[in-house]
Amino acid sequence: MSKLRFRISMSLDGYVAGPNQSVDNPLGIGGMRLHEWVFPLAVFRTMHGMEGGIVNENTAVIKESFANIGATIMGRNMFGGHPGAWNQEKPWNGWWGDNPPFHHPVFVLTHHAREPLILEGGTTFTFVTGGINAALEQARSAAAGKDVALGGGAHAAQQYLAAGLVDEMLISLAPTLLGSGERLFDGIGDDMHGLTLVRTIATPEVVHLKFAKH
Q1: What's the chain's Rg over C-alpha atoms?
Q2: Residue 58: which CATH number?
């Protein structure tokens, strides 16, 4: 069976997004600092249709995290837009424009039903109202034997972690403090849910902690 692989950047004080998230500030106040290590990388820029960039110790980590991924699951907060029901006249279509960087099926956890959103480059957003198990079942089917990536936000990740469904977890620990916002591990206790630290990669910009089930 394909693996569910979770990856996220986190601050030293445990936040994966800053306070006051909004359409104008999707990662919350200070949240962009969590990802400053990845923005200059050539591999990241290429994925987002940009030229140039650098290659360093973080490049291999990024390449590995995207290898063999056939589908992605994310929460409504990561897909973004306004809370509540979708705007029928002007529906929110994500942060990524007409050609998102996924290039495979993406399943969005939400309480509000919506028809699939088909965009360029092979990305289709399917909106799942049946909960985390339904989303994982659909994602694994769509991945056709490849692994499934789990993105944010924190609430979606917490549900999968608490249910013991995460097979691999990559936390990129950024050397910054946010003070408040969304904590990754709120509400899931002190149980690692079968995950064990298997690798640590320390770079000048970020420390990558990889956990896996045995």
Answers
A1: 17
A2: 3.40.430.10
CB contact at 8 A, 19 and 29: yes
Kindly state the DSSP code that residue 41 receives in the 8-state scheme. B
Residue owning tokens 């820029």: 45
Q: How many CB atoms lie within 10 A of CB 90?
A: 7
As given in the structure block, the two tokens for residue 68 are 């063999």
Report if residue 90 sits inside a domain: no
| pTM, entire model | 0.95
Give the pairing of strands 106-109 and 117-118.
unpaired
Q: Which two tokens stand for residue 101?
A: 């960087």
What is the pairing mode between strands 207-212 and 196-202?
A: antiparallel
In terms of residue numbers, what domain contains 153?
Answer: 4-82+96-212
pLDDT in tens, 2-37: 999 999 999 999 999 999 998 888 899 999 999 999
Domain count, the chain: 1
The verdict on residue 176 lying in a domain is yes
